[in-house]
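Retro notes, item 3 of 5
We never archived the inputs for the adenosine monophosphate complex last cycle. Fixing that now. Sequence and ligand:
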Amino acid sequence: MSIDPTLDYDDQNIFAKILRGEIPNRTVYEDDYVLAFHDINPQAPHHILVIPKGAYVSWDDFSSRGNDNEITAFVRGVGHVAREAGLVDSGYRLMANIGHDAHQEVPHLHVHIFAGKPLGPMINSG
Ligand code: AMP
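Structure as it came back at the time:
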């Protein structure tokens, strides 16, 4: 079930609970602004989620309300995680699902990092 990105931030979403330490995660990287952890249902040999620690629903929400420190840290965090995971030579894919048509399930902004095998076409044409 996908979410409505125009809704206000829901602080009961699963990533908000992870950020509050209410449910566990397998952390890959953390700093003041960013948390990265393994996806619970990996779709590739490497499947890492990177999230801002602030309460942002989507990319458009984050890019309009996020401050410069948060945005810089998020962009650098994604690159840092990819480098530290050793994904640069073989390549990797970044994906952010936003809203209904993209099937965003968790209403807290996240970037997926996929890697570890040929990842196929950019988008499912079906
Ligand atoms: P999206 O469809 O882009 O919103 O993706 C949400 C992702 O969150 C999916 O890939 C899920 O497998 C992942 N996910 C859901 N719950 C957890 C969790 N507790 N820990 C790690 N990943 C999760």
